[in-house]
Design brief:
Keywords: Cell membrane, Membrane, Transmembrane, Transmembrane helix, Transport. This protein has about 250 residues and is mostly helical. About 75% of the residues lie in helices and about 0% in strands. The protein has one domain (about 5-249). The protein starts with a helix and ends with a helix.
């Protein structure tokens, strides 16, 4: 990878955008920034570069998303599936066609958002389900390992619960902190970062505090309905990106 001004600027902007999303929504929309990095490096290199940075973002984000914002009953149901899913995703990463996974996830996500639109954009609260939580955690673990796209499965479980905006963001933040800690070593083993990649990581670390803080400030100004509308809108953007990845390869 050629370490030039364009590469540095695009990478820094992509990392800043991901940090902003983590500050505003707690996590789950990291895929928004990955297309930017793919303009200056291949996707696997981008994944390896982001893996350690995700940990820095998440740990810094916990400064704002404290334990009082975590839905502990949901995390207890979700995290075991996440752990198993990351293990499965690591195995599948080396043998499966990632495009097929992207297309399936995009289709499921768009159907989920479509049902929300049919209901007039209102969140229909549903009771907790252990089986749905395990399925969401497992699917999120697989997709976050394969394509850094674990947000949609988690959102499809959490959004219908009608959590407050702070609890929703705090729960997703801790969920992906655990996931990113677990998948960092497998991703580094798959990507094997070189000297230029480590240099980019060090430069991009400077984007973490300001990006997370700015996102958190925006979150603080959103009301409950705006927060959920933005989350559903971001799911559409994420799904379209997954669909593009799957179709265009």
């Amino acid at each position: 990878m050629d370490l030039n001004v364009t590469t540095i600027l695009v990478t820094f902007l992509g990392v800043f955008l991901i940090c902003f999303m983590k500050g505003a929504f707690g996590g789950g929309f990291a895929i928004i920034g990955i297309p930017l990095l793919s303009l200056v490096m291949d996707p696997v290199t981008a994944g390896g570069l982001l893996a350690p940075l995700f940990i820095a973002m998440d740990l810094y984000g916990l400064r704002y998303w404290k334990p009082s914002t975590w839905s502990k009953p949901d995390l207890l149901r979700l995290v075991p599936g996440l752990v198993i899913g990351i293990g499965i995703g690591y195995a599948l990463f080396q043998v499966l066609d990632h495009r097929a996974i992207s297309i399936v996830m995009a289709a499921v996500t768009l159907i989920f958002v479509g049902l929300w639109l049919v209901r007039g954009g209102e969140v229909v609260t549903r009771p907790r389900s252990s089986s749905k939580a395990v399925a969401a955690g497992l699917t999120s673990g697989i997709t976050t390992m394969v394509a850094h796209s674990g947000g949609p499965p988690l959102a499809m479980y959490l959004l219908p619960l009608g959590l407050s905006k702070q609890v929703y963001a705090g729960t997703t933040s801790l969920f992906f902190t655990v996931g990113n800690l677990l998948k960092a070593i497998p991703w580094l083993a798959l990507a094997r970062p070189a000297g230029a990649t480590w240099t980019l990581m060090a430069i991009s670390l400077l984007a973490v505090p300001s990006g997370v803080w700015l996102g958190w400030r925006l979150h603080d100004r959103l009301d409950q309905r705006q927060m959920y509308r933005v989350c559903y809108g971001l799911l559409v953007v994420t799904a379209m990106k997954l669909l593009w990845d799957g179709v265009a390869g």
